[in-house]
Amino acid sequence: MSIFEYNGSALVAMVGKNCFAIASDRRLGVQLQTIATDFQKIYKIHDKLFIGLAGLATDAQTLYQRLVFRHKLYQLREERDMKPETFASLVSALLYEKRFGPYFCQPVIAGLGDEDKPFICTMDSIGAKELAKDFVVAGTASESLYGACESMFKPDMEAEELFETISQALLSSVDRDCLSGWGGHVYLVTPTEVTERILKGRMD
Amino acid sequence: MESVFGLVGKDFGIVAADTSAVHSILVHKTNEDKIMVLDSHKLMGASGETGDRAQFTEYIQKNVSLYQFRNGIPLTTAAAANFTRGELATALRKNPYMVNIILAGYDKETGPSLYFIDYIASLHKLDKAAFGYGSYFALSMMDRHYRRDMTVEEAIELVDKCIMEIRSRLVIAPPNFLIKIVDKDGAREFAWRESIKDAPVSTAA
């Protein structure tokens, strides 16, 4: 089994009309055994910037702690929050620092940039950025997620429709992957509010 | 293979571990204490490589004491768990500790809590956790019978059920278990569950 499949994860982010949604599964496993069904994979950096970390849980936790540290330092020096594009470059740089001994994580970054324009991107474990206009996926269920998102996505969806679409895409994909699932965690972010919802799917 | 498991009840935490120290096919001793008392209100049950287990848990215990000496107040369970994870994570890519940890503690403000810390430093706060081959039996037993508001008697009954399963279904089952409890009155040994006693050692006159 690959080290990326040790804990199991599914992450997806989608762009809507002046909003974005980022969703993850909730399983923490150790290979075939499930340890927890409430494990958080999406972290808030600031009100308009979220990062999801797929892959090895220990590296996701370490990487998250390092990113929060860097962002807090940035906030103290610049007296403002980081833009999503800047944050994505920061994550990419941190990952490439460990080029020959990498963090086994695949991040999914989603945020609202200048004039609240939605921004999403993903990268591989050594920091190769992949910008997208519609959706990005990561984790052990990524292949299923690509298919589900490609067929369900429409551009310029409103917040409620975006939530429905991302939830259906996530739940149908994790049902085909034994290492991810046990519910879903969806964050819907508009310029004015952040809505966090827990999904109940197949608990197996 | 070593079994450690733990659970959290209404206002207490329990950690149980087997007590055999094994080296390949030889059982060195059957009364090895694998649950370190970190401070007055914390228990750290550990399983894994014997030397790493003893060294690492002692290192954490001494650092927890040092914090209390320097700052005059004890660490919270969450802080101790995160410190432990930090030490494991730093060592992971240099000289990893092959130790799996269940950390249970009681804080006055937040009550009992239990933390699962993998040997590769994955940290998660849980109500029940188990490591080792015994985990296949203990986790299933706990999934069936566990409730968040259990009393001590009910929890010990559940722990005994888990030990019964491990003894009857694991091919190389450890004979003896030690149970420790932590609640508002502190962390202490609760009971032994022995099926083999070491022969008493005669000393020189």
TrEMBL record, chain A:
Major site of localization recorded for this protein: cytoplasm
Gene Ontology biological-process entries: proteasome-mediated ubiquitin-dependent protein catabolic process
Coiled-coil intervals, chain numbering: none
Gene Ontology CC: cytoplasm; nucleus; proteasome core complex, beta-subunit complex
Keywords (A to Z) from UniProt: Cytoplasm, Nucleus, Proteasome
Locations listed in the record: Cytoplasm; Nucleus
Cross-referenced Gene3D superfamilies: Glutamine Phosphoribosylpyrophosphate, subunit 1, domain 1
UniProt-listed InterPro entries: Ntn_hydrolases_N (IPR029055), Proteasome_beta_3 (IPR033811), Proteasome_bsu_CS (IPR016050), Proteasome_sua/b (IPR001353), Proteasome_suB-type (IPR023333)
SUPFAM superfamilies named in the record: N-terminal nucleophile aminohydrolases (Ntn hydrolases)
Family the UniProt entry places it in: Belongs to the peptidase T1B family.
Assembly description: Component of the proteasome complex.
Function statement: Non-catalytic component of the proteasome, a multicatalytic proteinase complex which is characterized by its ability to cleave peptides with Arg, Phe, Tyr, Leu, and Glu adjacent to the leaving group at neutral or slightly basic pH. The proteasome has an ATP-dependent proteolytic activity.
Name the record gives this protein: Proteasome subunit beta
Native organism: Sesamum radiatum (Black benniseed)
TrEMBL record, chain B:
GO cellular component, one term: cytoplasm
Intracellular or extracellular location(s): Cytoplasm; Nucleus
One Pfam family here: Proteasome
Source organism superkingdom: Eukaryota
Keywords, alphabetical: Cytoplasm, Nucleus, Proteasome
Entry-linked CDD domains: proteasome_beta_type_2
Family: Belongs to the peptidase T1B family.
Self-association and partners: Component of the proteasome complex.
Known function: Component of the proteasome, a multicatalytic proteinase complex which is characterized by its ability to cleave peptides with Arg, Phe, Tyr, Leu, and Glu adjacent to the leaving group at neutral or slightly basic pH. The proteasome has an ATP-dependent proteolytic activity. Non-catalytic component of the proteasome, a multicatalytic proteinase complex which is characterized by its ability to cleave peptides with Arg, Phe, Tyr, Leu, and Glu adjacent to the leaving group at neutral or slightly basic pH. The proteasome has an ATP-dependent proteolytic activity.
PANTHER family the record matches: METALLOPROTEASE TLDD, PROTEASOME SUBUNIT BETA TYPE-1
Protein name according to UniProt: Proteasome subunit beta
Organism whose genome encodes this protein: Sesamum indicum
